[in-house]
Specification:
The protein is built from seven helices and twelve strands. It is α/β, with parallel strands linked by helices. It folds into two domains: 6-73, Winged helix-like DNA-binding domain superfamily/Winged helix DNA-binding domain (Arc Repressor Mutant, subunit A); 80-264, 3-Layer(aba) Sandwich (Rossmann fold). The strands form four sheets. Strands 6-5-9-10-11-12 form a six-stranded mixed β-sheet, with helices on both faces. Strands 1-2 form a two-stranded antiparallel ribbon. A two-stranded antiparallel sheet has the order 3-4. Strand 3 and strand 4 form a beta hairpin. Helix 4 packs across helix 5 (112-124) and helix 5 packs across helix 6 (142-152). The chain is globular.
Length: 269
């Protein structure tokens, strides 16, 4: 086999690690792939770890033990507050206020670069929670939840308003929507295993009715909800149905003639 140069090894290694976030690759795996000694691969990993940290590209972690190795974990990096403040400036444009006092933000939730950045922040704050899957409610929360699940290396589960026939039997519960009406939330019985841990990710929260519904749905499956993250939450509400929610951004009450007031959440560094 032709000898592989260090720069080629490191480029291939980084590509493998970043395309499979949060997955542990043993050093032996790379030793066999590159026909290199473990000490050589260990040096490569050390150099990559320093590079990733220096440029705020996430975290490269060495995991010790019998099943240890190296894994890549996306995160917001050193400029995470600047990133969120940039989105806040976009959302604070007066032109985004729609008739009826709504805020237009669908373009933010359909921009791949912004979605990946926001998902990295959510995942970075959720690794320690050790969720088994990410749960969201259709439809606007799906893009961010999908990329969060990818960053965590976990599956995505989507609750829907109505289950299709081909998905089998389902659990259905009523919940209070943002408008105050009663809607139905459904999830196939085969979608979730009992006793697992869920991270809820959604796009928007006012009073927390949808999030509260997802938590109630998880209780039906005997699943522990270990965390709740949302992209945008209304800052001033009379009554919130859920506590301990981690938003990326906070929205002040929209008032006639005034631009939207959107700011980063306090936990964003």
């Amino acid at each position: 086999m032709e000898k592989i140069k260090r720069n080629e090894r490191m480029a291939a290694m980084m590509q493998i690690l970043t395309t499979s976030p949060n997955r542990i690759f043993t050093l032996s795996h790379f030793c066999e792939m590159f026909d290199a000694a473990k000490s050589t691969v260990s040096e490569d990993v050390s150099l990559l770890e320093k590079t990733v940290e220096r440029f705020g590209l996430g975290r490269l972690e060495t995991v010790t033990g019998a099943a240890g190795g190296v894994r890549y974990r996306p995160s917001g990096g050193a400029g995470q507050r600047d990133f969120i403040e940039g989105i806040c400036r976009k959302l604070s444009d007066p032109e985004r206020i729609l008739p009826g006092g709504f805020l237009y933000y669908s373009d933010i939730l359909s921009d791949p670069e912004l979605i990946c950045g926001m998902a990295g922040l959510i995942a970075g704050s959720s690794y320690s929670l050790l969720p088994d899957f990410v749960l969201t409610m259709e439809t606007k929360g799906i893009p961010v939840a999908t990329m969060t699940a990818r960053a965590l290396g976990k599956p995505l589960v989507i609750a829907r308003h109505a289950i299709k026939v081909y998905e089998g039997s389902a659990v259905n519960i009523p919940y209070v929507s943002a408008s105050g009406g009663i809607e139905t939330m459904s999830l196939p019985r085969r979608a979730v295993e009992r006793g697992k841990k869920a991270l809820i990710v959604d796009d928007f929260m006012r009073g927390g009715g949808t999030v509260n519904g997802m938590k109630a749905l998880m209780r039906e499956f005997e699943v522990d909800v270990v965390g709740v993250s949302v992209v945008l939450a209304v800052e001033e509400v009379d009554r919130r149905l859920v506590e301990n929610v981690r938003p990326l951004m906070l929205l002040g009450l929209l008032q006639d003639g005034e631009p939207p007031r959107v700011r980063p959440a306090d936990w964003i560094r």
